[in-house]
Amino acid sequence: MNHKRIPLWQEDRDRNNYPSLDKNEKAEVAVIGAGLTGITTAYLLASNGLDVILIDRGKIGSGTSGHTTAKITAQHGMIYSEFISHFGKEQAQLYFQSQMEALAKIEELIEKHHIDCHFEKQDAYLYTNDEKNKHKLEAEFEAYRTLDIDGEGLLEMPVNFPMSYALKMKDQAQFHPMAYMDALAKAFSELGGRIYENTPVYDIDSADHRVIRAVNQHTIVCDQVVIATHFPFYEGEAFYSGRMYPSRSYVAGFTSNGKYPGGMYLSVDQQTQSLRSIIHNEEEIWLFGGGEHKTGQYKHNEEPYRLLKDMASQHFDVKEWKYEWSAQDYTTLDKMPYIGRLNKNRQKIFLATGYRKWGMTNSMVAANLITDMIIQNDNPYIDLYRPSRFHPDPDLKQFISTNTNVAKEFIMGKIGNKNDHIDKLEINTAKKVKHHGQTIGIYKDTHEKIHAVDTTCTHLGCELNWNNTEKTWDCPCHGSRFHYKGDVIEGPAIKPLNKIDYLN
Ligand SMILES: Cc1cc2nc3c(=O)[nH]c(=O)nc-3n(C[C@H](O)[C@H](O)[C@H](O)COP(=O)(O)OP(=O)(O)OC[C@H]3O[C@@H](n4cnc5c(N)ncnc54)[C@H](O)[C@@H]3O)c2cc1C
């Protein structure tokens, strides 16, 4: 493998380093999590004159926002026909309007701060090569007409995918998300905002003044808190764990012998395929994505990157593979993000999550909405995104299915292991074994060293599954992911896995 297993966005980055929290602090608002949601919210709050601290357990942009494909669009799959049927025309219209306003606001900030982030307008396409989905896509076009969305039904597309029908949404956009986040974080600092990196937060005491507790024992006392940690690490009895599920996707970047014809593409068929391009280090890189599945639930051991590349090679004249990476995002019960107050008993704690892989515009919607709530401005989208909403259809159906799946993974994980011996374990692979009555995960590294951990997720106790592609232990219930040595990589878990002295 001579290509890099990192997101293109993280390469050759001209970034500031920020300190970790090394003293107790005070602020009007503490924003926890420095991805697109946290950085944008912190920036907008500081622009409104508030004293704000932004804090992250890693580096800024090291979460999903630094692993995205960064299409900035209101074309979020075939969502408008579904939203019209579940919530009605008015709510579907509001959703579209909020997303288009977000796109415009991103463009406005880029212009205002002269951010060099390859922002460019592109048309977005959904397409299908399946007769059943063709009817659904035609129905989606009908929804566009109902909502006055500027769309076009097509029998051909600029790019060479086998297809029978496509739906275009005009004048959408794309950018380089890390260049944008780095610049916005800098603009936030210049407004007096303070950024702390490498400081995991593990708790919020929500008395009159909220106290944010960092793992390194320091605290931040503040009036209001924004949880922008992707999955809310603090749920405050609002049960987000049962109301969202995580799913992963894979991205491969390549150069081609052909010229990229423009456009951003997404298939609506069972095998998701996504495509856009970017000029990076003076080369035209095609970014091809797909391979979606629930986190921690691996149907087979085949290399997802290999499958992705086989698929890309069928359609395009690949010259050289350059990058590959993967990431995950959360989907809510009714597919509408949760943005607003954590719950009615915690009026001064806000959160934003559940973007269903459409976080470029949704993070801006969230930043605007939460800023308006904190500075007590009216905002037309409060009810639409209110996290405490419940719609009997589709929430109930999805709630049962999500939690049946979680319960199944919980139980199967606990009982479904076989005893086996480490001698049979191949290098660079892992398996679960019983050890003194406990299930543990053992991984044999390239030097044949064994790393053994308790495979019980430290978030809510689900049994973890081995992800052989990334060499991680992944939670099939809520998406926490751990390094084979036990350290937390992402998700709601705060504590590392217990290491086991297996050989003794
Ligand atoms: C493969 C893939 C492709 C995608 N492509 C697109 C696309 O083309 N267009 C689009 O609109 N959307 C896309 N998305 C979705 C989008 O990338 C996400 O919705 C968005 O980046 C989420 O941003 P966020 O700021 O909420 O979360 P994140 O970027 O994950 O930020 C959360 C931050 O919180 C920090 N954190 C977590 N826990 C703690 C803690 N306890 N203490 C302190 N800090 C903590 C993390 O370190 C992280 O930096 C894609 C998603 C995936 C998975």
TrEMBL record:
Keywords: 2Fe-2S, Disulfide bond, Iron, Iron-sulfur, Metal-binding. SUPFAM superfamilies: ISP domain, Nucleotide-binding domain. Gene3D superfamilies: D-Amino Acid Oxidase, subunit A, domain 2, FAD/NAD(P)-binding domain, Rieske [2Fe-2S] iron-sulphur domain. This is FAD-dependent oxidoreductase. One of its GO terms (cellular component) is cytoplasm. Residues 417-504 form the Rieske domain. It holds the Pfam family DAO. It comes from Gracilibacillus oryzae. One of its GO terms (molecular function) is oxidoreductase activity, acting on paired donors, with incorporation or reduction of molecular oxygen. It comes from the Bacteria.
